[in-house]
Amino acid sequence: MHDVHDDMVDEVxxxxxxxxxxxxxxxxxxxxxxxxWIKVGRQTPAMWRHRRQGPPxxxxxxxxxxxxxxxxxxxxxxxxxxVATTTSTA
Length: 90
What we know:
It is built from 4 helices and 4 strands, in the order αβααββαβ.
């Protein structure tokens, strides 16, 4: 099954948000790594989720751990969007 969103993620041009050497475009990162990468406070990603702002995230079940796909964060950074979504995976 092909998702139109996949095309959008693949087409992102990395400009102002070049990836640091320790981070790969296809990686999945936690909120601590996200905060370090985009230089925000460690609690900021949690605050964004609570307010339904910020980049899309994944909530892993049953542990409910939160992760971010780097490619989707790049799309969010370049687009200036401010709406978080959640996808649960079993």
